[in-house]
UniProtKB/TrEMBL annotation:
Residue ranges occupied by any GFO/IDH/MocA-like oxidoreductase domain in the UniProt entry: 164-295
Protein name as catalogued: Dehydrogenase
Annotated Gfo/Idh/MocA-like oxidoreductase N-terminal domain residues: 10-134
PANTHER family: BCDNA.GH03377
Any Pfam family: GFO_IDH_MocA_C3
Keywords in alphabetical order: Oxidoreductase
Single GO term (MF): nucleotide binding
Domain of life: Bacteria
Lineage of producing organism: Bacteria, Pseudomonadati, Pseudomonadota, Alphaproteobacteria, Hyphomicrobiales
Organism (species): Bradyrhizobium manausense
Length: 409
């Protein structure tokens, strides 16, 4: 790859117009040296709406394009943010590869988690980006969470030198179910809650266990053990609810709504390390709950997204429409409720975009790349195969190269 010149402003082109695209826009209010140069989505109505939102936030001209090629060759964007459903990403990356090889003036592509539906697809995503000569970034927001960044810094700076590295990371993410129908469809999403949410959990846990400045590959993956289950959404009442709201027959073709996994790893000195991850679409609390722990010989760290400093109480006489103005995946509008006052910052989107924008603007590779996205998919496929076989999977496992989880077949 030729050396890239520094840009005064990175002009981002958004591919996608759903919930996550709106989240990225909100987070970019806290990012310097960025503008939204263009927007593309399959839906003309939705791409116009997300472009209007970008302009209303003062993030740039956000020109609406009717194809990826038109946006890529326009000269109005420098980097693309790929934010579409999982089943579309590989074909979109092929199109980005084609237009870049044909001369489109792009320097980088960033892709929302997970990178793909399978390990084979993830490897192809990386190959296409590298063959096109593009910088690439993997958009895993939780490793950029303000609590994770601050907590990891303190542990590794104050605790590790006096007692040794951390050896156990726990990560749990739970809510009451996704927003869009495609998340519930295994062939489109690539799985169920293990694919959708454990991609966050295993990577933020691996990040916390990784020494500052080292890449994630410095930890050798040893084994995976997992259990998946259908706890809530296959029950007739809830399956009927999904059919009414989402138009999908979940009773006929379900995906897991609960997953628990253990990954064993080794560092360069042969120390055994553990990741314990739990994810669920069957949790009904105030809203999305993220819980993280990092344990070492003489210390520990913990974080819970619902243990907020700000809470509000609304009595039973106060009624109103349903919303998510207090917390993502909000389940109530009355009682004592936590308020996540800066979701974009606390969940990591602001620092994630700040980091990616600055790396791409300067022409350097970011700290989280498609290499990490491939690593995440290897962990997830190992966990799915373990759950299917009912036994521990050991790495490297050549069967994972073309493995497809049962719910996605």
């Amino acid at each position: 790859m030729q050396k890239l010149t520094e840009l005064p402003i990175l002009r981002v082109g958004l591919i996608g117009s759903g919930f996550i695209a709106a989240f990225h826009l909100q987070s970019m209010l806290g990012v310097r040296n960025v503008s939204v140069g263009g927007v593309y989505s399959r839906s003309a109505q939705r791409r116009a709406r997300i472009a209007d939102k970008a302009r209303s936030l003062g993030l740039g001209q956000a020109r609406v394009f009717d194809s990826i090629e038109a946006m890529a060759i326009s000269g109005e964007v420098d980097a693309l943010w790929l934010l579409t459903p999982n089943d579309t990403r590989l074909n979109i990356m092929r199109e980005i590869h084609r237009v870049t090889k044909a001369g489109a003036p792009l320097r980088a592509v960033a892709c929302e988690k997970p990178l793909a539906r399978t390990l084979a697809e993830a490897r192809e995503m990386r190959r296409l980006a590298e063959d096109a000569g593009l910088l690439h970034g993997y958009l895993e927001n939780q490793i950029f969470s303000t609590a994770v960044i601050r907590g990891k810094d303190i542990i590794w700076r104050r605790a590790v030198p006096g007692s040794g590295r951390p050896y156990l990371a726990r990560a749990a993410e739970e809510h009451s179910g996704p927003h869009e129908p495609w998340f519930w469809q295994g062939d489109k999403q690539g799985g169920g809650v293990l694919s959708d949410m454990m991609c966050h959990s295993v990577e933020v846990a691996r990040f916390m266990l990784t020494a500052p400045g080292a890449n994630r590959q410095s930890l050798r993956l040893v084994s995976a053990s997992a259990t998946t289950a259908n706890l809530k959404w296959t029950r007739p009442h809830y399956a009927a609810d999904l059919k009414k709201r989402m138009g999908i027959d979940f009773a006929k073709r379900p995906v897991e709504d609960f997953a628990r996994g253990i990954l064993t790893m080794e560092d360069a000195d042969g120390h055994q390390l553990m990741i314990e991850a739990t994810t669920s679409w069957a949790y009904v609390g105030a809203g999305l709950r993220i819980q993280l722990e990092l344990l070492g010989p003489e210390y520990s760290m913990e974080f819970s997204s619902l243990s907020t400093g700000l809470k509000v109480f609304l009595s039973r006489t106060l009624t109103g429409s349903e919303g998510e103005d207090l917390v993502e995946k909000q389940n109530a509008e009355q009682g004592l409720m936590p308020v996540v006052e800066d979701e974009a910052g606390i969940y990591g989107y602001t620092d994630e975009n700040r980091h990616m924008v600055e790396a791409f603007r300067l022409g350097t590779s970011p700290a989280e790349t498609f290499d990490d996205g491939v690593g995440v998919m290897e962990m997830l496929m190992g966990l799915y195969r373990s759950a299917e076989l009912g036994q521990t999977v050991h790495f490297p496992d050549p069967e994972l190269e073309h493995y497809v989880p049962p719910v996605a077949r």
